[in-house]
Amino acid sequence: MSADQSENESEEPEEAEGTEEDTEEESAEEEDPIAGLGEALKVGDVAFTANGTSTAGSVGDVLTAEAKGTFLIVDVTIKNEGSDSITVDSSFFKLKVGDVEYDSDSSAGLYANEGADFFLTKLNPGLELPGKVVFDVPQDVLDSDDILLNVQTGFFGTQQGEIKIQ
Fold it and tell me: Where does the pLDDT of residue 114 fall: very low under 50, low under 70, confident under 90, or very high at 90 and above?
């Protein structure tokens, strides 16, 4: 009986170690990748690059949109690295500051993007689409040094990543 007990005792720690390793590997796989300004972040078959940021009280030349707070404008480039066309939309971007998420302002985005459009735009394989994603945020967000741009592929956001923009 003591031989059985020592066998069980030696088996139990091995199982616990294997479980711990599996948990560490799973959590590492579940973590979203984080890139910095100017770095391409590949999410699925799409490469997202945040090229820079600016702020404004309004956007547009002839027709304008006025911010309720301040517009944080993120200059981005999206590249389709897949083999099928994709649809690009400003709703694929969210701003995260701590636990708070901010949606993009799609109507302000239309005014900010004179030549590019992030409203249900088709992007063929191998092509890039530069443009601006606009967020209407309060001043305390602009003062934060931990602003993340959450990017996703598709409307359901099954593949996501983050870019530290400030």
Answer: confident
* Pairwise CA distance, residues 162 & 135, whole Å: 16
CB 77 within 8 Å of CB 117:
no
**Can you tell me whether residue 151 is helix, strand or coil?**
strand
In 13-50, which positions are buried (b, 16+ CB within 10 angstroms) versus exposed (e)?
eeeeeeeeeeeeeeeeeeeeeebebeeebebeebbbbb
For residues 84 and 7, what is the distance between their CA atoms, to the nearest angstrom? 55
Residues 141, 142, 145, 148, CA torsion sign: positive
CA end-to-end distance (rounded Å), the chain: 63
Binned at pLDDT 50, 70 and 90, residue 113 comes out as: confident
Full-model pTM: 0.77
CA separation for the pair 116, 110 (Å, rounded): 8
The phi, psi pair for 148, rounded to 5°, reads: -115, 140
- How many CB atoms neighbour CB 140 within 10 A? 10
Condensed to tens digits (0 to 9), the pLDDT of residues 81-97 reads 999 999 998 889 999 99
